[in-house]
Structures are given as C-alpha cells and as structure tokens.
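Page 42, continued from yesterday. The earlier attempt failed because a stray header line got pasted into the input along with the sequence. Redoing it now with the clean sequence only.
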Amino acid sequence: METVENAENVGNAALDKETKLWGMLCHLSALLMFVIPFGNIIGPLVIWLLKKDISPFVEDQGKESLNFQISMTIYIFVALILMLIVLGIILLVILGIAELILVIIASIQANDGKAYRYPFAMRFIK
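This time it went through. Structure tokens are written below.
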C-alpha cells in the first residue's frame, strides 16, 4: 500500500481494495442516521478512529465525512427551528434528499479511490 504525503494527492495514489472499502464505509456509515439518533456522526467517527492509521486516504475521507455530517446536523437543527414558520418542513425534505444523494456519490467516489469533497461542509476537523 502506497502512502500519500498530503491531502491533495490522496485521490491520485494507487489504493488497495481494503483502503477503498474503508474509505467508502466512512461515508456509507452516515446512513445509520436512519436507524439510530446521531448515527450519521457516530458511524463515521467510529470507523475513522479505528481505521485512520491504515491509510491517509481513509483518514482524509473519514474527516470529510465527519465534517459533512456535523454540518448537516447543524443545518437540520436550524431547519427544525424554522418549522415554526413552515419553511423548516421544506428545508428538512431538501436536506434529507441532499444527504442521501451526496452520501451515495461520496461512497461511489471513495470506492473508486477518488477523494470526495462535500459541498457546503464546514471544516471542523482538519
């Protein structure tokens, strides 16, 4: 397994199947939000903490997934507050659809060995 020196080159290195799998699972584990509360943060966090040392790619994708999921959680709380003026219901639907689509896209990209960057993600973990 090749190592990568910086995050810009993460997607350019030849990655083995295990590394790609764990990168993909960093993203897919966010779908736990549909099963347990805050599963969208817990799933990627657990995988990132357990597997970040196997590859810079897994570490990068774990951080990316966590940053996006923390951002989405904040956006969802804002939408819940806005439900008082009905706008929140529309925002929740849009956020839910965007979450699902973006997680699937990120998972496919990671499985192909390409580093994915989520749009609208705040960078809490660097």
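Notes: The chain has a mean pLDDT of 87.
Reminder to self: strip header lines before submitting.
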